[in-house]
Amino acid sequence: FIHTLALQANAVCEQQAKKLIHPDHIVTALDNLGFNSYKKNCLNAMETAQEEMAQKRKKLHGKPTSIYSQEELRRQQEILFEQAREELQQLEEDDWARTQELSREVLRKKLEASRTDDDNYDD
User: Fold this and answer.
1) Distance between CA atoms of 52 and 44, rounded to whole angstroms?
2) What pTM does this model have?
């Protein structure tokens, strides 16, 4: 019986160009095979299953995903943003200090080179 019903439901599914057998395909297969007496029970079971799935979805989406309130999460986010801004500021200051140090070093070397050149001209 189940095998025959599954084959008929699959045929209905293919006629509708669907890839998955849905409960409606089973109900149509029951009609096609002449098992109308099972149709009412099948529809009741289908309705019950759909209600249970809706309740499960509601429970999943109704639960808070965090132990923190929205306000606490926003506050934590602001703290993280502030920390990131401070780190970026520190990096920029460090880069500026390195650039200044390199500039001084280049100038010092140029001065030494020019003094050496001046000393060579004096000879």
Assistant:
1) 12
2) 0.45
